[in-house]
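Notes, p. 3: input format for complexes.
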Amino acid sequence: MQVQNDHVVSIDYTLKNDAGEVMDTSEQNGPLAYLHGHQNIIPGLEKALDDKSVGDSFTVSIEPADAYGERDERMIQTVPRSMFQGVDEIEPGMRFQAQTEGGVTVVTIKEVNGDEITLDGNHELAGETLHFDVEVKDVRPASEEEIEHGHVHGPGGHEH
Ligand code: ZN
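Output follows (160 residues plus zinc ion):
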């Protein structure tokens, strides 16, 4: 069966950055199941999967614009330590959820300088060209409920 809109696609994948480091892989949790044509995954990967068939393996490189976007230096801010009430230790690399006008976002601590904390609100993969090794494991028509919800139910998907 071929990958097409309103189908549930299961893929094994390994994601590497430009340096060849593995950033993510389905190896531990098993194949990722997503609903094709519903922007469940980054646009570049969804496009690369169009018309592929079960058993197909391929490699694709995706520019930031079709992945997690370019880095935006305006999303780097310095805030006072008092914003982190109840957090004893703040170290570079730690991640926090922050409430912003656009909803909940994840910020990474970039630098700690006394009472000044520098935060980076960019996605950790923003600005990165992504290299995927992908194997299509399964394709099935989505149920009406899945199409209505815009995501996959059952193994590899939402449990609710
Ligand atoms: Zn649902």
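The chain is about 10% helix and 40% strand.
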